[in-house]
Specification:
The protein is mainly α and about 170 residues long. Helices cover about 55% and strands about 0% of the residues.
């Protein structure tokens, strides 16, 4: 698990701080899901119906949508590929937890390379997720959005894992 950065930790510039938090939340999500049995990883106990492994797939696609398709403006095959036709997260029976967790780590490495090659004040390129320069946000705003997605979904996983009698806390 990545080390949680405390507010008093001096790690350098804002990019390194945001990347540190993203690494922490990404590894927290992976550990929470990995702590569950194979059956529980694919079982929902919520009215909305999502499963822990579906949430992992959502995180993979979410990070790619914001950093690769969004910030870099690169074409992305099926940017909303985490959703089924009913707009719910979906994981096929052939998709394994291990492959989705590996994709999550790969997404993190790609995010790190993107952020380390840019400034937080750099604006996303239009042509990908953002069709005009007027709607393109700065990298800092994108990273803050991705960070809040991870924090929120780690909170969701905390509750689901506890209800499934898995480990609680960090």
């Amino acid at each position: 698990m990545a080390t949680f950065l405390r507010p008093i930790d001096h790690v350098g510039d804002g990019s390194r701080v945001l990347l540190g938090y993203l690494d922490y939340f990404r590894s927290t999500a992976a550990e929470k899901v990995s702590a569950l049995s194979d059956d529980d990883q694919r079982r929902s106990i919520l009215p909305s119906g999502w499963t822990p492994v579906e949430l992992v797939k959502h995180l993979v696609y979410m990070e790619r949508r914001w950093l690769v398709w969004g910030f870099l403006g690169e074409p992305v095959d099926r940017p909303w590929g985490d959703n089924g036709e009913d707009d719910r997260w979906r994981v096929g029976p052939e998709e394994t937890t291990e492959s989705l967790l590996a994709a999550l780590q790969a997404a993190g490495r790609r995010t790190r390379s993107i952020v380390e090659a840019a400034l937080l004040s750099d604006v996303a390129r239009s042509g990908g997720r953002f069709t005009s320069d007027a709607e393109a946000p700065q990298l800092e705003r994108i990273l803050l959005h991705v960070l809040q997605e991870y924090a929120r979904h780690c909170g969701h996983l905390d509750v689901v894992v506890e209800l499934m009698a898995g480990p609680v806390g960090e």
